Amino acid sequence: MDFSLIVPCHNEAESLPAFYQAVRNTFDTAGLEYEIIFIDDGSQDGTLDTLKRLTAEDGTIKPAATIVSFSRNFGKEAGIYAGLQHATGTMLGIIDADMQQDPAISLDMLRFLQENPGFDCVAAVQEQRKENAVLRGFKSAFYKMFNRMGTIDIPENASDFRVFRNYVAEALLSMPENHRFSKGLFAWVGFRTHTITYRPNERLAGTTNWSFGGLMKYALGGIMSFSTKPLRMAMWMGGLVSVAAAIYLVVVVFETIFARNAQPGYPTLVCLILLFGGIQIFLMGIIGEYLGRTYIEGKHRPIYVAREVVQIGGLPESAAPAPAPESQN
How does pLDDT run across 172-182, given as a tens digit for each residue? Predict the structure, then answer.
């Protein structure tokens, strides 16, 4: 197989017919043997039935397709991981099904890799995000913070929209961690990456599955997955607070003994208790996040559980990858 296109889907039944047709219009005449890996991430709107209808063998020539249906919603990161496991192409691509990312750009990225063997991956970066100023500001701050705190750099406005060689996929699969942050994983494995910019289209149907709280949780997880600096910051904060407390203690003793200015001190005492109590809880929260992640990873639970895997056309059974069992690491 020349190319495998991985498409994570969550409640995308309305967008899928137009997306599938756009993929076929782009790749059917490209002279490539390609397949589409659809991941139904626990959708509740008939996404799975739509995928089966679109890819069904009905006498017409259609591209090979694999549909991996999750037992529940495991998230886009799990969907990408499942797609990497089931792909058989020498080149792989990741794209969303909401039509904000043009399949023709995937073909352009694929052609670039074919013409430039010195590169291993092409990553698409949004030229301008179509979001409100507050959300854009938070995302910009996240990328700056991530690059300063981590040991790797990711470009601002980076996305999972990219095309890469199969050995890049093998490197990603060699890291079966539960708390996945693909943008960081692509940067961590290295390889020579060419970056392009693109303008996202308007979403064809439905609404985004990302809430502000979900994005904040995702961003926090990304930082904690690739940096221990929050723990180091907690240590320094504790040290600074201890120094400040020691200085204040000296001031209080001086005023009491030499200035004869002893105060009842009740308001001061309450403020200090609240201040130090809040700082301690905050620092314990940081440590707790890391401990919680260690606890989850230590369980070695599968990244996703597949309820159903459907393969349409493509390689003969003897050459195809083994069907996914009920759970995959």
Answer: 998 888 778 87
Place of tokens 């390889």: 191
Place of tokens 């990456």: 193
Asked if residue 54 lies in contact with residue 17, where contact means CB atoms within 8 angstroms, the answer is yes
Complete DSSP assignment for 128-193:
S--S-HHHHHHHHHHHHHHHHHSSS---TTEEEEEEEEHHHHHHHHT---SS--HHHHHHHH---E
Q: How far is CA 304 from CA 33, 72, 195, in A?
A: 28, 9, 30
Q: How far apart, in whole angstroms, are the C-alpha atoms of residue 38 and residue 117?
A: 28
**125 in the Ramachandran plot: left (φ > 0), alpha (ψ -120 to 50) or beta?**
beta
Q: At what angle do helices 166-173 and 182-189 cross, to 10 degrees?
A: 110
pTM confidence score: 0.70
Q: In this model, does residue 104 exceed pLDDT 80?
A: yes
